[in-house]
Amino acid sequence: MSLVARLDAGETLFTAWSGVPDALTVEIVANQGFHAITLDMQHGGHHEDSVLRGIVPILKAGKHPLVRIPVGRFDMASRALDFGAEAVIAPMVNSVEDARRFAAAMKYPPLGERSWGPTYAFPRHGKGTQSDWLKESNQRTLAFAMIETRAALDALDGILETPGIDGIFLGPSDFSIAWTDGETVDSTLESMMETIESIAGRARKAGKHAAIYVMEPAIAGRVVSMGYQLLAMGSEHKLISLGAENLLKSVRESIAS
Amino acid sequence: MSLVARLDAGETLFTAWSGVPDALTVEIVANQGFHAITLDMQHGGHHEDSVLRGIVPILKAGKHPLVRIPVGRFDMASRALDFGAEAVIAPMVNSVEDARRFAAAMKYPPLGERSWGPTYAFPRHGKGTQSDWLKESNQRTLAFAMIETRAALDALDGILETPGIDGIFLGPSDFSIAWTDGETVDSTLESMMETIESIAGRARKAGKHAAIYVMEPAIAGRVVSMGYQLLAMGSEHKLISLGAENLLKSVRESIAS
Amino acid sequence: MSLVARLDAGETLFTAWSGVPDALTVEIVANQGFHAITLDMQHGGHHEDSVLRGIVPILKAGKHPLVRIPVGRFDMASRALDFGAEAVIAPMVNSVEDARRFAAAMKYPPLGERSWGPTYAFPRHGKGTQSDWLKESNQRTLAFAMIETRAALDALDGILETPGIDGIFLGPSDFSIAWTDGETVDSTLESMMETIESIAGRARKAGKHAAIYVMEPAIAGRVVSMGYQLLAMGSEHKLISLGAENLLKSVRESIAS
Amino acid sequence: MSLVARLDAGETLFTAWSGVPDALTVEIVANQGFHAITLDMQHGGHHEDSVLRGIVPILKAGKHPLVRIPVGRFDMASRALDFGAEAVIAPMVNSVEDARRFAAAMKYPPLGERSWGPTYAFPRHGKGTQSDWLKESNQRTLAFAMIETRAALDALDGILETPGIDGIFLGPSDFSIAWTDGETVDSTLESMMETIESIAGRARKAGKHAAIYVMEPAIAGRVVSMGYQLLAMGSEHKLISLGAENLLKSVRESIAS
Amino acid sequence: MSLVARLDAGETLFTAWSGVPDALTVEIVANQGFHAITLDMQHGGHHEDSVLRGIVPILKAGKHPLVRIPVGRFDMASRALDFGAEAVIAPMVNSVEDARRFAAAMKYPPLGERSWGPTYAFPRHGKGTQSDWLKESNQRTLAFAMIETRAALDALDGILETPGIDGIFLGPSDFSIAWTDGETVDSTLESMMETIESIAGRARKAGKHAAIYVMEPAIAGRVVSMGYQLLAMGSEHKLISLGAENLLKSVRESIAS
Amino acid sequence: MSLVARLDAGETLFTAWSGVPDALTVEIVANQGFHAITLDMQHGGHHEDSVLRGIVPILKAGKHPLVRIPVGRFDMASRALDFGAEAVIAPMVNSVEDARRFAAAMKYPPLGERSWGPTYAFPRHGKGTQSDWLKESNQRTLAFAMIETRAALDALDGILETPGIDGIFLGPSDFSIAWTDGETVDSTLESMMETIESIAGRARKAGKHAAIYVMEPAIAGRVVSMGYQLLAMGSEHKLISLGAENLLKSVRESIAS
């Protein structure tokens, strides 16, 4: 079942977050209990080559591949789809114009301006003819616009109305910096929570999906109840750190006892 | 003889199309009977590193290296030349402004705004002094603007008149999507052929080169007669697929007989 | 179904032969109509890293991954299995001692001396417990000893009787060099065909599998009738060369007509 | 001591210039007597992956990592900082708008619009809490705008006044092309020296740092006396060429004598 | 302080176990709370290139780099030292002859036969002159022979007496397979524990170090009390798996509550 | 002209020594004034992949590619030739048996036991038919046995008489360690010079080539007069270090003056 079908069916989905541009590391993450893996090209180390190669182990593991592009790199949004991503997350979509450019790169005409050439995506996913593929592509791949500044909040209605934008993705760390005018970074800042809830609500009302990064596991239940359906978490840095702490604690306790 | 010299001399040239970002694979393609190899960074998997490394086996094989950049990545047009490409193909040049920005990245002042730094290109190609190299570079490298939308067609005269644009490159798959408003993708769509012919004619009349992607070999004669002089074809996906079908057919026939 | 199960069931299987140490190129080959892909570390360019990475797209495509190791590199036989290969082909097994060392690396005790550590193979293939995996591994992975010299021919009975050797693999090019004392290389040399047939017969009689490299497709039927059941063919050099010849011929004919 | 602290303390610093996108080569350069290493993504071969990996040996050697981005790739300015660069050099900053966009990518709000996510930089450099890191980041990383055209010269005051721009970097080769309207490339062109001196002076007066590329060692003293404090020099092409000439000369003299 | 100095001082040390041949992944592991990182070339995916590159982030993090070589690959023992490893672990040292060959590769004459050429190790570690480095190298790098078969157990005294062998490393999984004649794999098999304890005792009595792989944290205290001083644990597969289970459990609990 | 032809013609040739496993770095070295480039797999960082890729820029630059293999890795001797090397240097050939095994891997039957499969070498070098290539290969590729221990000196006559050994290569650093029983490493140790001279003399008398590593340029004339015809020198570590010292000296002098 595709990512879009599962979201449409109302599933709550977890995506791991990969920042190590290495297909073997991605393979290990893809074998864990997440539903999807997001290859991060903005703050993570992923790049064109690692995305192209990293999607294969994700698909082999039966998981959904997503890609976050760098700020404004809409050329890469198209490429991520050409490589077989099911969704692309664009950071810092702060205006309707940003949303429009992002959608243009994500959707084939007449909806957008995406160029044809699924050299890798078609053999990785496709069945049927290339014409079938053309017809269904705009529906089966998802464009998530990140909402993480006051400007984005101000432009939210227009962003949600932009044809080709399939959902929003809340970036709580940047949002907290914006919310406090650079005073702090705190992904669970209480004072912004009501607004974060309203964003999900407005997205859902507009018929769009709502996703969010979950830095602190304890916030998960709350954001799900707000309407966020796709939860991102767990870069390799985080997973290895958690695993090492856990393992070393057990070993040290065994030795101390 | 340089690519530009051969095109000026009226040769019909074939360029293979490489989408595998690996210098050894490029080397094998470069050893086949094509005149040139285009490293594709838009729909293919090539990236900065693979272009930098892939040009070497192409030059060793005595072939011409070309690079297609991603949409709007004019920074990469300059870099492709810095790495030793003889021509750059820019997709989705849909306006005179697009053409102007592309030309600016491709040509040294006063024609354009390309920055100096042929660290790799000069030792790969160069003879004489760096000042000689500066003087001849604008002539010996080619800027091909892709014409593949209705907007590009509307702006064609202006694109052809843009100083620094050396030729056009027709993308028939995208053009067919545009031509049918997203209804189909068909690189040999009969209804667009007259227009495709006129584009070559207008380019030639403006003193510019005309290139095209040939998805179906049977169309080759027709596009050559239209005035297209540089024919692109044959990604690794295509070549390996053709080779495997051919080989397996022979093996199966031998076993069946 | 595993490779061993299909061979036991009497299927004639085709394996492509990959010499390009790049997972994307392997992926393309794996998407063609072969049943298996052999990653060649002897004359091909594969190495530890490319084998580890190249097995993933083969498994994703539902094909069987095989590895040919360099001469005498039995450490790599174990590693290929640890990485997820279903069979290993060892070149130049010229004596019973060679066969014994190869088998030792391929099989867990008490049959052999393989060391435990399926870090990659188990998550790539495994179901059930690691103890189950230990118990079934010796059966589900195959050791093919290459027979390609006069010494190997002389030692054939002993090689076939060596516990842990699951089959032989005939290398016809080297065999022709040996057969003619270095006078020529000819994979279909008529004078050696009777011997090649007898080798398959002796292998089958000993309950072992017989495999062979097919340089010329026309020989396929003949070797199958001799009892060779796994046929190797088609490196990327070969496939790309066949594909390019085919494509350029069609293009040139279109232009000439 | 950080790069900014050393520049503020008035030290004259030398940065090597790396164009080979390979961490082992960078490691060798980092072990020489330079204070810093600049990884060049404009004319050099560095890319996302090589910058991410190349910063580690620079830090291990106790040197300062700098990155030059391609023209207009401000997404990469943020990424270079996320990967641990202490300074970013942006080429072709030809207008106040260019400077503003560069600064926006380099500085966290409210000064700029940089997005939060120091996944690599924090463990590579950081001490204390992430909130401390947020507070000090805008001060401890430096934005150098390259001045290398007449347009940049005309806009210099505005560029220097742009909040978040920490210094200018003079590109003498491009400046000479601009100065002569494309007639020549000459990094020590006498006729532009007075202007080059005035640029340093204006930068210093505005409280900004002044850096320059030194193609000819003999010019070093002069530019230092002009006020340039960070001197770039010595790509691997240059260093290896100097080393080889020196070595071969000694060997040839020994043989001839 | 060097690894050998810390072991001589009686510290109990933990080494992580890296099987992902990627320097960025190694960097993350090196930033956790282990004292050392072992790059595994036997069952892990490490190879010449990844060892050469992976040692840098380990040294930057102030940790000790160790390498486990493939079975019988004593050429690689020397190379690991040339690349900067502080210790090498050789698997399947089953005889005095194996031990002698391993020691020969690890030690410079007259103790062994190691060839001179610390191109990478010297700048990575070295101070003083190359002659100093030659003199101290045999002492400052450690050769660990793996004891993991009945043959090794039988030969233990001879192995321990072999000049140049600095310690033993117990492989409990393989030892359990040997102990049960292939019946099971169980790193904490009770019936072999007395023997495992005696091995540490004999090693310590011979003045050699004792190391062991700890698959189950709960065994740590017991093996330390037996005299094992260097404890290996935690491949990336293990660490990521532990981290993901931990994280997903917290997230699921938050949602369920 | 091939390497063997030039040596036979009496030329004194210089080979650079590459230890950085990166084709771009090799390309830069190949563009300097050396006649050949040796890719070092023993103490340098080269490996299967970097040798396969590094030979291309060497051939493009019109230089001779050589490979030094790790100790005892005769499987790699064959592979280096398969990848296109013109000569292979084997370290630590300390006995006639070592020489025999090395020669077996280097030469096709009946002279040796090399296996057929020039997948890369033939398209990189070859003209004519594969049978021609088979016939000429044993002559056109060179096997150099390193003489660097007392054992090798004792076995020298036998090594020189071994069919298939084309020359010796003197390793002066290891030889000095052997000569002083591990007391020092000194490539120009006076007390061993007479022996080093006699080795060249005995090689020449046996009709074999003599090569040597030149650590100190000043020794070059002396070893040439001894009969050494192929002189190795200048790793990237050395070249970059020489270049950086030279450059920084000039810059510092300019500033100081």
Automatic annotation (TrEMBL), chains A, B, C, D, E, F:
One of its GO terms (cellular component) is cytoplasm. Residues 17-240 form the HpcH/HpaI aldolase/citrate lyase domain. One of its GO terms (molecular function) is metal ion binding. Keywords: Lyase, Metal-binding. It comes from the Bacteria. PANTHER family: 2-KETO-3-DEOXY-L-RHAMNONATE ALDOLASE (PTHR30502), PHOSPHOENOLPYRUVATE CARBOXYLASE FAMILY PROTEIN (PTHR30502:SF0). Belongs to the HpcH/HpaI aldolase family. This is 4-hydroxy-2-oxoheptanedioate aldolase. It comes from Neomesorhizobium albiziae.
